Amino acid sequence: MAHEITRRRLFRATLGGAAVTLCTPLLDMALDGNGAAMAATGQAIPVRFGTWHWGCGMNPERWVPAATGADWKVTPELEVLAPYRKDFSLFTGYAALLDGRANEPHISAVWALRTGHAPRNKEDIVDPSFDALIARAIGGGVRFRTLDMAATGGKTDTYSTTGAGALATPEPSALALYKRVFGPGFQDPNSASFTPDPDVMLRRSVLSSFADQRAVLMREASIADRAKLDDYFTSVRELEQQLALQLEKPAPAEACVIPSGAPRDLPVSSEIDQVTASHKLMVDMMVMALKCHQTKVFNIVYSPSASTLRKPGSADTHHIHTHGEEVDPKLGYQPQATWFSQRSVENLAYLIDKLGQSKEGAGTLLDNMLVYAHSDTSYAKEHSLDEMPVLMIGRAGGRLKTGLHVREKGMAVTKTGLTAMHAMGVRAGSFGSQSMEVSQTISEVLV
């Protein structure tokens, strides 16, 4: 009698000591614009990728510059980023296209941007987000294919998915992030000594013991099931490779400085000062994780869509202000809602500054990475789907031009995602579906 191939049987194979995740080897590593992206050790410096999200958008008339190209002038809501103007490019006019589907506030646009398809709800999210596609391509060779974090502490504050409803679970605090990265299992890449972790050895041994089961299952499966099993066991093989890497002494990382201790445990809160403090600590931990070669991909949610940020002592959130506050007739915008948006961009400035101050080889982390920053809407009072705010920060190892303003009115915002993928060496032929499907990149910013 043939063995029954069931979901439970596969789970038994994985629960014996390992959690299986898909993690492919690194596809590409690049030199900087001068061909000098090498550490003092002679190792090529990897190009990293990250996303940064804030909720409830901005005011387009105070965000979008009049000029395009390299000669654009910083607008009021981008003023805090003026010192970093040459370190990022700005993209305006890009839209989320729904193909006749209803606009689900704070869901449709952000997931259309990230996955190329506007869902009716989170259960309708079936396609992988472009950050996950990048992580599949470049996320090998390190302990963590990606690190996800939410400054507000929300366990569901994420816009990253590997598809089929598998949403990332973000770390809710800087302390949790520290424990995950620098806790048990961390090996100092610059230490003279190296002792393999027995737990890693056991997990690899358990996975290796599945070889006979793989052969039996593949032999007995239908054609359709073989395709699913092939993907499944590919992920197992890749995890074996990742575990094998952890059993070898890591390559030196000259910029790695292990934190002297765990960060303070801040209360989980939506009060903006607490969120800002948590965000700064998370950025500090994440930057060191990059410098210590623990990951190459990260996702930071400063505030979720339908932003829950609020002032100390107030129950009114940023989201409530966007809908309940009147537009000031003299200013021409909502002062309270705009205050939250500008504070959000201030926190983005902290991330840019931290990356730019982090020396690596002959340059900085900012030279060797791309951060894709965006919101879930443009003008939140109307849940606008056009003018989706997007910034690409960093030079991606010399693959990306900075200091530019590119405007394509009405173009699907997925064009920015496809461009980010190409900048990271992921040569996807297209991205998105229906009206959101694009096959052309933004050539002005690609080197």
Structure notes:
With 447 residues, the chain is α/β, with parallel strands linked by helices. The protein is built from twelve helices and nine strands. The chain has two domains: 80 residues; 348 residues, Alkaline Phosphatase, subunit A, CATH 3.40.720. α4 runs parallel beside α12, α5 runs parallel beside α9 and α7 runs antiparallel to α8. The longest helix has 24 residues. Strands 3-4-1-7-8-2-9 form a seven-stranded mixed sheet, sandwiched between helices. β5 and β6 form a beta hairpin. The N terminus is likely disordered.
Q: What's the structural blueprint in terms of helices and strands?
A:
Elements: H1 7-14, E1 48-54, H2 60-63, E2 88-92, H3 108-115, H4 130-138, E3 147-150, H5 174-182, H6 198-208, H7 211-220, H8 223-246, H9 272-291, E4 297-301, H10 318-324, H11 335-356, E5 359-360, E6 363-364, E7 369-375, E8 390-393, E9 405-407, H12 414-423
Parallel strand pairs: 1-4, 1-7, 2-9, 3-4
Antiparallel strand pairs: 2-8, 5-6, 7-8
Helix pairs in contact: 4-12, 5-9, 6-8, 7-8, 9-11, 10-11
Précis, in short:
Helix content is 32%, strand content 9%. By secondary structure, the protein is an alpha/beta fold. It starts with 6 loop residues before the first helix and ends in a 24-residue tail after the last helix.
